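pipeline/complex-builder :: batch 7 item 3
reading input block
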Amino acid sequence: MYLRPPKPIVTLTTDFGLADPFVGIMKGVILTIAPQVSIVDISHAVTPFRVIEAAYEIEPAWRYFPKGSIHVVVCDPGVGSDRRALLVEAGGHYFVGPDNGTFTLIYREKHKVREITNAKLGLPHPSRTFHGRDVFAPAAAHLAHGVRPAQFGKPISDPQTLRDLDPHKLARSWRGQVIKADRFGNLVTNFHVHQFPDVRTEPIAIRIGRKTMRRFALTYTDGEPGELLILIGSSGFLEIAAREASAQLLLRAPFGTPVDLEIG
Amino acid sequence: MYLRPPKPIVTLTTDFGLADPFVGIMKGVILTIAPQVSIVDISHAVTPFRVIEAAYEIEPAWRYFPKGSIHVVVCDPGVGSDRRALLVEAGGHYFVGPDNGTFTLIYREKHKVREITNAKLGLPHPSRTFHGRDVFAPAAAHLAHGVRPAQFGKPISDPQTLRDLDPHKLARSWRGQVIKADRFGNLVTNFHVHQFPDVRTEPIAIRIGRKTMRRFALTYTDGEPGELLILIGSSGFLEIAAREASAQLLLRAPFGTPVDLEIG
Amino acid sequence: MYLRPPKPIVTLTTDFGLADPFVGIMKGVILTIAPQVSIVDISHAVTPFRVIEAAYEIEPAWRYFPKGSIHVVVCDPGVGSDRRALLVEAGGHYFVGPDNGTFTLIYREKHKVREITNAKLGLPHPSRTFHGRDVFAPAAAHLAHGVRPAQFGKPISDPQTLRDLDPHKLARSWRGQVIKADRFGNLVTNFHVHQFPDVRTEPIAIRIGRKTMRRFALTYTDGEPGELLILIGSSGFLEIAAREASAQLLLRAPFGTPVDLEIG
């Protein structure tokens, strides 16, 4: 009756960093329960407690894993409080983590959300400070090992969601925000090409602070060295890049900085 | 005769960092000898040469792995000198690393320590600068692949140990130390709840520098934002936390800072 | 007809860092195509766009993996331009990455280089900004899964190479350069003991800036604390170390700093 994929994958996305043993401990818990699992780190560099960042970090990643993969996302400022633990089924994948809005973008898929209440599927005597180890890692491992979703707990219909994830309309433009600066200093915005398909064909302008960018580029090698360019990034979000330079250093626009988009 | 667990685990804890190829090279050595092994990183961010930090890093982690796991811990300022290489059996687990006190906390378990002297179980022509690659990774891999501990070398009874790992008694209090600041700025002390069970029931005070903390909390969500709290951390050590803030930034107490505990 | 090693290894070396989800996404792509693969990170801390650093990062690592391993190296400032994608066979290993000189040191082995042109062995609709995901990860995975090299594309004879990788002769000495400072502050040079075997037996002097080092050491524990020492590092390159200190901090010699070697 139980599904037991031959080589299931569990991915980990947390704000735990890699300097402390937290992530290694989670992997020990998973491999104790489900030795056959492949574990893949997505990122452990989510800014501590910044749930929206975790939501954006898993979004471009999960679709590149095989169906049936289990994605554990733990950015959990409310650990030990009465916030719920969730198991989400969406898009043929599973998601495990705290009920604090982490999965807001996942809920755009057809989804079913369960509260994890079956204490037998967690470690005995769970702490109130490290549910990554005591609740979420064991849940993911049991799921990978064939326990059916229904055994974790009952469906709920009111999971927490984050607001203001999408750009909103102003008088003459759209107002979005910077959602990250990547390793190369590219500033990723929350304008997604699926929501704004006209950016492919119409002239556009993006304003961040006092700077306005109009040059639409197809690759990071377009433009003059240092020139600020608009690109559709590899996960579909519009981003500002600078050839052989860091747009982040040029624009000094941290997470949450307003971004205005004009089309046409 | 040889034990060959179907999917053995080798964990790695080092001061090598992740920027250099050292850790990847160790994994290549291990997978060449024992392709079936699962390798898990605990931490590679141990401060270079600070053996005591390596001792504390593996301590909360190894119990969360299945029995028979092999834990390689390499913080090795004496590499290439005449310091011994060790294989330790304790608590149903194996530990491999230099004889410099790294395993002091492990020796609190019933244990057997061997000096690794069988050169056939290392790489040929070992360097004098990278025993992680040439001695410890191959030893762990051969062990994972079924070589019996006795083949590595003879038992020894005088392994090196670190002193001052435990708090000591002062006139009216106990004197311990800060053993780490974690990713969230929580200051972890060397007061373990197993040694100081009264902290659960008695009023306590912890003094670090000029600050005295008295508020005992159960979760990081207790207290006012920024308030300094005493918690029992997820590995059983008392720690100082600050809600939605960094106790480390508030107290500026680096590794080794004295911590005084009064109970009652 | 196809080779399908039972447990192939794919290594990853990039300038993507570990904070962004790029590396995790590449692993998802690989495991979707070839679930049986073991993936090992060599380093993701290559300085963005510094191809020569990627070339030096994979060089000491690949030989420690089993024959048949596949090494993906992506430091790719020209992504999306018309630079070619390569599959290299050398030394019994495979190498996959952009044609920008990354594999210059690999070409010292007997080698065959192919341009990857078979679009069926990449993701559909490849982006012009993330070929690590769309071209190189799938190529490595298909190779691991048994697709023969000839199916990727035709051999080429003119791959790009980096110049000035080797020291050159001055009037009385050899001029090389600093190729990295490792985690411990050891300054690694591009003088390899295979090219300069006399350093083992002759008196030598190494000059970096205004400092001249003459003390040849066998281990990092030789010398006085803080003394600058010359060693043959674990991958055969001469390096400058300082006992219990950082040669990098003492000499302030970044990547590319000239290094002069006198022998005899």
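note: The two ends of chain A are 56 Å apart (CA to CA).
queue -> next item
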